[in-house]
Amino acid sequence: MTAYLKRSAVLGALARRTITSSHKPAAVAATAFQPATDSGPIFPPFFPSEPKRPELISLQIPGPKAKAAIQDLDQYFDTRSLNMMADYHKSIGNYIVDPDGNRLLDVYAQIASIPVGYNNPDLLALANTPEMISSLVNRPALGNFPQSDWASILKGGVLKVAPKGLDKVFTAMAGSDANEIAMKAAFMWKRQQERGGPGVDFSPEEIKSVMNNAAPGSPQYSIMSFRGGFHGRTFGVLSTTRSKPIHKLDIPAFDWPQAPFPSLKYPLDQHAKENAEEEARCLAEAEDIIKNFHHPVAAIIIEPVQSEGGDNHASPSFFRGIRELTTRNNILLIVDEVQTGVGATGKFWAHEHWNLPTPPDMVTFSKKAQTAGYYYGKSELRPNKPYRQFNTWMGDPTKAILFRGIVDIIERLDLVQNTARVGDYLFAGLENLAQRYPNQIQNLRGKGQGTFIAFDSPRRDEVLRKAKGEGVNLGGSGERAVRLRPMLVFQEHHG
Fold first, then answer.
1. Which positions make up the signal peptide (predicted)?
2. Is 98 one of the catalytic residues?
């Protein structure tokens, strides 16, 4: 395989200008990552017409055309969070192109949201079908006027890949929306239990008090989240987001608890005892909150990997412990798979790595699915009356059709297995670099988690900037983490 993979586009960029110090010989940097052997299969490219490598036209990014476009946009739209200006007409596969013609290998993929490549020909063909065109120009208010084939669309894509044990879905617009309505479902479920079941109607006191935002109609329940977690930026879900102050400042919040998320030491195999103790500590504190917090906890919401809070991982044992806590204390478990879902971790859903004794109560999704919502299995999680989970759109059939097409591509090309294999390949290469440059690649994590890989860097922002200067678009997480979020069509020859 070495002949096929002489240079690493991602890791070579890190080695050449961000990992090595300025006096390192170029020859050393250029061969920083080599496969261990020459044996092994050569996998055909998913995008045969895709460029072979990045190409930089301008002396810096953004170049003059991109700067002009940004300046024009800034008059009308806030560009302060801009990563780069893109030309999507010219972007293809794993490569993103900017207005100056710079072509970068995109290992950030719109914050982990592009599953099968830019301008995927199968999806372009799908976009031109009568089914898609009709859904696009006749967008239905799904709760009131669903199209006649809505069940078929859901069964062919969204429900075809539903997590085991969860055969129902509420569709939504985005990840934040999905998490918000999942939390609403948890609160309604909790009160329904206390009333004695879905057949028991609301009391006059509840109906009267709720219009004053008071109990018993507006009960003082809570959702427990975890320190470092991120579940969105819309109003309600912000009370569970704990990653960065800038997300939450000036916004009134609910009085809801946060539990500690394990802070593991790496390499994992060298710190097994300390990490087990840390996870046990976090589980004990979570249970104390469940039992003693002044607003009863209706549900726990947790990410398989804390993607915005620093790419923090925990063991399957920890998550099984969380499931046991929720079951024993009669509260719900919401697994936020907005970023980890749809194959990114080498399983279609990241929680499949945990081997849970029972499924989560709800699993939220968005990003790579291109649509959003939450899966559930228990019939009692459907509200007892209509209009309780409702808005005009309740999702978008065009995006559900797109997800169906994405699922077909994933299955045909076996992209989940591809991601597991490529993730092992990338992790091995980063381990090689971390051994050579331990001060620059710290706390490497994500082994066995597909391409959901990250490491800490003492000069993270410089790493991201210089990688872009080598033609690779990477992303950051938390204060120090460099994270890889390649598409499912990312292959060994890219890495």
1. none
2. no
